Amino acid sequence: MFEVLPQLAPDPILGLSVAYREDSNPDKIDLGVGVYKDEKGNTPILNSVAKAQRILLDRETSKTYITPQGNQGYIDGMLSLLLGEQSRVLMANRVAAVQAPGGCGALRILSELLVRCSAKTKVWVSDPTWANHIPLIGSSGLQLETYPYFNKAATGINFDAMLETLKKTEKGDVVLLHGCCHNPTGADLTNAQWDAVLEVAQERGFLPFLDVAYLGFGDGLEEDAYGVRLMAENLPEVIIAASCSKNFGLYRERVGLAAIITENSQTRQIAQGQIQSVARGIYSMPPSYGGALVDIILADEGLKHEWVSEVNAMRNRMQTLRAMLVDKLEENGAQRDFSFLNTQKGMFSFLCITPEQVLEVREKHSVYFVESSRVNIAGINQQNVDTLAKALVSVL
Ligand code: LMR
To answer: What percentage of the chain has pLDDT greater than the value 70?
Structure first.
């Protein structure tokens, strides 16, 4: 039966880890998959998470099923983090939400919910967007369109073109926006640009679909929530997919959240039942472990404080690494100005070099990153930055 299926190329992001592992060059550099790494190249368990694990080990008395909506403490903690402690939509009981298996699980079940509303729904995604958005959203049957976002030649956002396209959307269209730390470009909207997008959403009536996978990695946990809170507080309906993979370092535990802000509390009840039934039809209920850890951290003032410091430390280190790379490129004689990397945010940046140059630096110098020129900034360290800069300069 399966011989009728075509052989697929490796995944454009995950396939890089396999290629990197197989490379015997001792000076190889991995800037592929978006995983935070410390100075030694390890991805350690956060201290706050390690402490929560010990608490959970003592506290958990059963492995019976949890409910389709997941851990309510986790959901409430995450909603406060995303929407703010004083959120009016939370107070008005207008938010339906479920714990989801990772940000991917959240993106998929929200897409399936949109199909239940109308299979003809158009979803606009940024050009470029995270490669996995396309199968996650597109495979549910929704129609994908793109809006201009990043201009490689100008190394920045083409905001006028973005707004112009958003002004052509129709009521009922969905627009996927990266809440912060745009993946793959690292180029984020300013607060004033978010305000302008809100105005267009109000004018045209599109539904914002916010993907928030890097909260805290841009300017701070509060600052990075500007866009999501602006949309939530000022529009009747918004949907949000959030992930704890990066900011809690819980990658393999698959901890996400799907939230639906509805016009009123009656519709909230409908949405809650529908999203749970979507989840039941795909994976029944989310895994418990990671959500239980986040619940423990967010409910304990001391642990939460420690976690916030750990997020701040990761963010600050990534900003230092950006600056280090920019300086090293200059020091090694790069003819181009790479200072735009310092203005980008979060884990990723577009180096704005050609796919041919990306492949050349991979083949000749064993430096691995996505063909679009997306690099994982967290993969840079004091030991490899000089080799990296020299390798990049040699292919420019
Ligand atoms: C990435 O963008 O590298 C991460 O979100 C990992 C993934 O699943 O692609």
So the answer is: 100
Is the previous residue joined to 6 through a cis bond, with omega within 30 degrees of 0? no
Structure tokens at 211: 């993907």
Q: Determine whether the shortest distance from the Cβ of 132 to ligand 1 is under 6 A.
A: yes
Give the active site residue among 124, 130, 194, 307. 130
Neighbours of 312 (CB within 10 A): 14
Specify the length of the chain in residues.
Answer: 396
Domain(s) of CATH 3.90.1150.10: residues in the chain: 2-44+308-395
Contact partners, residue 26, CB within 8 Å, separation at least 6: none
Is 51 among the catalytic positions? no
Q: With a 6 A CB cut-off, is 80 part of the ligand 1 pocket?
A: no
Q: What span, in angstroms and rounded, lies between the C-alpha atoms of 50 and 56?
A: 10
Mean of pLDDT over the chain = 97
Instruction: Give CA angle at 75 (99, 173), nearest 5°.
Output: 65
The one-character DSSP state at 213 is S
pTM to 2 decimals? Answer: 0.96
Strands (E), 171-266: 174-178, 207-212, 238-243, 256-261
Alpha-carbon gap, residue 257 to 212, rounded angstroms? 10
Domain with residues 50-302, CATH architecture: 3-Layer(aba) Sandwich (3.40)
CA distance 251 to 6: 30
Q: Look up the ipTM and state it.
A: 0.96
Q: What is the pLDDT of residues 144-201, one digit of tens each?
A: 999 999 999 999 999 999 999 999 999 999 999 999 999 999 999 999 999 999 999 9
